[in-house]
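Quick review question:
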């Protein structure tokens, strides 16, 4: 007589980092493609679903200044210093008023951290997706003048704000490995949390290890940002897809972060405001709009927006809260001259506008 024994319980999926249970929990609602490579960001650090991914990612924490309440820059900021200024200075949370106004007020102004182009939505959305062209300096489509000493770094990203703040920047950061021929765009995820922002970047020192997630410059990539609710957790997520810079293979990466409920992010749209950004970030307070850096042909196309992927449609004017371009005649504090190129070739920014979901931006710091 053979006694029946139950089959062994399946082993839990692998997890590398301080929050394995949370990683497992936040993988269940992902599609198979999204779930291939996943990492979550918490104040304790990064937890990833493979040793290779965990080894390629770097964790950053930016505590708030006790007096100003603004993020303090760290010696090792992962190249994100050009974004910290705009992360919390770009908005002022407003309380809902009797006229029904909700969400934050997005200011179009000099953020003291480099030129930018922002397209942002009206309140009420929790999902966005775009195809975006990532320029290449090898092809002469961009140049970052690092020797100018202002930290010029190109960023192309999405994100937004909850009803009471909680800014998030999620997308791509341009890089070159040790000045060599490798020209790529690495994913990053920068989230404002209580106590200060935290971030995920790919380590420069681990460029080879990060190659499976570094995208080849000069291609169209897919970028998605969305908000979900998992019981008591509100979760912000980004997914990127494209071709890798090293082996020219398809790549996908999903980065997720629980967000404090006090920031007012809603999985149903609520008072969320979503955004698309093109910028050459510079160190906050060391802005120089004539370094010689430039970036041409950042093409956003097929942008979609909705309360969820299932009801998302083309991003149109009726869903748009506004357009911000700095420097421009409207935003340059020193006057219209600040927005013009010194070589007489017109404005520093050139925007080929098709509609709210499709445009191409170029910027010249000359």
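Suggested answer, residue by residue:
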């Amino acid at each position: 007589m053979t006694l029946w024994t139950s089959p062994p319980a399946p082993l839990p999926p692998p997890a590398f980092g301080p929050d394995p249970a949370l990683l497992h929990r936040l993988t269940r609602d992902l599609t198979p493609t999204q779930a291939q490579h996943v990492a979550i960001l918490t104040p304790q650090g990064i937890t990833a679903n493979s040793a290779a991914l965990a080894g390629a990612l770097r964790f950053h924490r930016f505590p708030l200044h006790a007096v100003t309440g603004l993020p303090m820059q760290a010696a090792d900021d992962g190249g994100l210093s050009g974004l910290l200024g705009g992360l919390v200075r770009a908005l002022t949370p407003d309380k809902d008023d009797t006229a029904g106004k909700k969400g934050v007020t997005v200011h179009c102004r000099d953020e003291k951290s480099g030129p930018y182009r922002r397209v942002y939505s009206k309140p009420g959305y929790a999902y966005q997706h775009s195809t975006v062209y990532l320029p290449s300096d090898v092809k002469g489509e961009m140049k970052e003048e690092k020797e100018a000493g202002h930290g010029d770094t190109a960023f192309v990203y999405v994100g937004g704000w909850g009803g009471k703040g909680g800014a998030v920047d999620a997308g791509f950061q341009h890089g070159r490995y040790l000045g060599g021929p490798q020209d790529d765009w690495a994913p990053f995820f920068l989230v404002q949390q209580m106590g200060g922002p935290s971030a995920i970047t790919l380590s420069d020192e681990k460029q080879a290890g990060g190659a499976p997630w570094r995208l080849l410059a000069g291609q169209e990539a897919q970028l998605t940002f969305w908000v979900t609710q998992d019981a008591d957790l509100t979760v912000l997520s980004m997914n990127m897809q494209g071709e890798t810079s090293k082996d020219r293979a398809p790549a996908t990466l999903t980065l997720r972060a629980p967000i404090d409920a006090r920031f007012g992010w809603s999985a149903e749209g609520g008072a969320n405001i979503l955004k698309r950004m093109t910028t050459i970030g510079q160190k906050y307070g060391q802005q120089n709009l004539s370094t010689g850096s430039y970036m041409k042909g950042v093409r956003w196309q097929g942008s979609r927006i909705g309360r969820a992927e299932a009801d998302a449609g083309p991003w149109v004017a009726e869903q748009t809260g506004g357009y911000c371009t700095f420097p421009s005649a409207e935003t340059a504090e020193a006057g219209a001259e600040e927005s013009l190129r010194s070589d007489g070739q017109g404005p520093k920014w050139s925007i080929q506008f098709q509609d709210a979901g499709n445009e191409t931006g170029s910027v010249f710091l000359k």
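Why it works: The CA atoms of residues 55 and 258 lie 22 Å apart. The first strand starts at residue 38 and ends at 42.
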